[in-house]
Amino acid sequence: MPSRNSPSLLCYVTDRRALSDPADLIGRIARAASAGIPWIQIREKDLSTRELLALARAAVTVAAENSAPESPVRIIVNDRLDVALAARAAGVHLAESSIPVAAVNEWRRRGVSTNAIMLGASCHSVEAARTAERDGADYVFFGPVFATPGKARFGPPQGLKRLEEVSRSVKIPVLAIGGITAENAGECIAAGAAGIAAIRMFQEAGDLPALAAGLRAAP
Fold first, then answer.
1. Is 0.85 surpassed by the pTM of this model?
2. For residues 147 and 182, is the Cβ–Cβ distance under 8 A?
3. Which of 87, 141, 143, 162 has its CA 20 to 30 A from that of 123?
């Protein structure tokens, strides 16, 4: 499970529709794994269940092929616990409107087949982060920290001060999301975030290995 004391956690959140060639997504996942991005979240909400499962399985395969056995890249499936389990992904990430964190954690505590899966949750308030931690989440995403079109429906950006409040309010890792760039990522870490999650910053990077190395070392 993730630790707050490790180097900055990085999560590439996929969005194939933002690519000039959506079919290149698996190639982007392979490059992210090779660059040392430790978590890759498959977030392709428009796919059918079978299409999403095929993509998740392919992502699990290329992540294993492009990462060291002692530090495997973790594939996390957004929202779909069933797909995460069928694809043998490392984790599932839940929105506030998804199946409750507590329900998944109850299955884990009972020793059902979900007991090895990492469990994350998106949060947009201190209260939501505390609830996710109480209910058994291993980590949370918090945002949007900065302005970004993809998170506009969640309201205005929360800002660094609120990120700091959330990071201090829970013991599990908090990853900042929403408008994260190479220039402001360090501010998020300085505010107490254990790491960052982003779509465009990772998906559009010209030199992904150098970007990842710099972000992992963010103070």
1. yes
2. no
3. 87
Residue 60 CB coordination number (10 Å)? 23
CA distances from 147 to 18, 63, 180, 184 (A): 18, 30, 9, 12
The domain spans of the chain are 9-216
Rounded to whole angstroms, how far apart are CA atoms 2 and 39?
10
CATH of domain 9-216: 3.20.20.70
Q: Give pLDDT, residue 194.
A: 96
DSSP secondary structure string, 168-196? HH-SS-EEEESS--TTTHHHHHHTT-SEE
- Report the distance separating Cα 139 and Cα 129, nearest Å: 9
What residue type is 79 in one-letter code? Answer: D
In degrees to the nearest 10, what's the CA dihedral of 101, 105, 106, 110?
170
